[in-house]
Structures are given as C-alpha cells and as structure tokens.
Request: fold
Amino acid sequence: MTERSPITHAMVLAAGLGVRMRPLTLTRPKPLLTVAGITLLDHALNRIAAAGLTTAVVNYCYLGEMIADHLSRRTQPTIILSPEPSPLETGGGIKLALAHLGSRPFLSANADILWLDGKEQAIRRLVGAWNEATMDALLLIMPTERAHGYHGQGDFDIEIDGRLARPGKGNAAPYVFSGVQIISPRLFADTPEGAFSTNLVWDRALRTGRLQGVVHDGEWFHVGTPEALQATNDWFDRHDECLHDSGRLLVR
Reply:
C-alpha cells in the first residue's frame, strides 16, 4: 500500500524582478500583468482555489506593496504573505516561507506562467499522483514542442515509471518544467541561507531517484517577455471559448 499525503497548502512565487518584461515592469510587478483581463497571479490562485487547496502563501519583493494591496481583495484561497527583503530566487523564497507551509508536502506555482487544464485539473492530477513513499518532488512538465512562447532547450527527460532525468551536457530535453510542482519541505533541510534555485533541491532528489514528473495535457504559456505577453493575449482573443468553459479551464 502506498502512503498518500493530502495537499492543502500552496505557494505562489511572485517575488521576481521581471527584468525581461521591461518596460512593462518598470511600474508594475510582473505577476500583476494581465492575460485575458486577469492577472497572472490570479490565474494561478484561481486554479489553486478550484482544486480545493485552502491556503496559499505568496512571496513578494519588487513593488511588493502593489501585490499585497491587490491580494487584500481576494477571499479564496486564504492568503498568507511572505515578504522578502531582497530577491531569494525560487529555492530561497520557498525556504523562507516554510514556516507558513507546514510540515507536509505542498504545491508550488510560479506567477510568471499560465496554464489551461486538459481533461482533468492539472493540480488534481499532481495531487492524485503524489506518493509520499517514493517522491520528494513531483513536477508538472510540458512537451517543449507544445509550449507556447518557449524557445529553450528543455529541462528533463522522463522514464516510463515517471522518474525524471537531466539530459546530457549540451543536449536538448523534450520537456520543460511548467512552473507547477508538489514538493516536500524535507528537501530544504541543510540548504544555504539566502538566495538559491530549486535546481539545488531537485538535484538532491534526482540523485536518490525521488524526482518524478507528470506530463501536462493542456495548454501552457511561457509569459517571459512583452512579446510573449502580447502573443498570449492574442491566443486568447482567437480562442474566446476558453474563457467560458468554467468547468475545465477556470479562466473567468
């Protein structure tokens, strides 16, 4: 019998500087830029709430008072703010917020990406696949060939049993990390103080075979530049039906 852990808490990473999104981020933090009239931050929080997670920790740094003010108007999920005195990157930001996230595994989502669910809600797919006995982190990964706005070399290969692997040096990988994962707080034991990437803890899990993945079956958008933001909004203009399928896509 496998031991499964209920996931009730989430963290949304919203503390980046948004350098590549300038000039749009000179006066507004990147998570508050909008796609289809909804902020990137709210797209993530809407999906977290729809999946039944009750609490979301949101970190902030750059123009953080705008994020805090914006979130003061949300009622679901319950929001806990985790301000950072300076940018701590993905791993450092999560580590600082662990006191709010509890001792159980939690969901983490980046606030600079956007996804639409496939046949089932992506978060619920992750929760259903999570196995405490065999995993330290479970990543939602996206085929690079279907990733809107992504032009990189990919991050991972995936084995038949779901375990992830890094490609060889200089090689491309068929899957990119979507920005959404379930991760155990135990991976952050003995990590550095200050800024560091989640790549550090993923590599720990890779060495023990406890980093696994689920392939996303819906749409996914890498919203990293003003051009990508415009392209994503153009896509939604062409697919207006996505804004009304509240049962699956939960965009409005």
